[in-house]
Amino acid sequence: DLIEAMVRKPDLAGRAAALGIPTVQVDGNSPGEVATAASLAVAAARSGTGPTFIEARTRRIVGHYIGDIQHYRPKGELEQDIAR
């Protein structure tokens, strides 16, 4: 994961949990998982239990700009992400 090159602890939900914030990790490429997590987080907030940290792990399948050849990605990674 590229995030490991940027932060010491790639499990971002773990950072929030260390602060006592309820956390959930979901597949950010799954609209159903994201919608369910968001609905539960909103319900919790409305009930007065406070915030929920949602870490939606996702893979980008398009570049940063039109024509980005994504030379920074390992060979074959894009094809794997598209297939997934």
Number of strands: 2
Rg for CA atoms: 16 Å
Coarse structural class: alpha+beta
Residue stretches low in confidence (pLDDT < 50, at least 5 long) are none
Helix content: 40-55%
N- to C-terminal distance: 16 Å
Number of helices: 4
Give an account of the 3D structure.
This protein is an alpha+beta fold and 84 residues long. Helices cover 40% and strands 12% of the residues. The protein has four helices and two strands; from the N terminus they run H-H-E-H-E-H. It has a two-stranded parallel ribbon. The radius of gyration is 16 Å and the shape is elongated.
Q: Top keywords for this entry?
A:
single chain; 84 residues; alpha+beta; 4 helices; 2 strands; 40% helix
Please give the structural blueprint.
Layout: H1 3-6, H2 12-18, E1 23-27, H3 31-46, E2 53-57, H4 77-83
Parallel strand pairs: 1-2
Nutshell version of this structure?
With 84 residues, the protein is α+β, with helices and mostly antiparallel strands. It contains 4 helices and 2 strands.
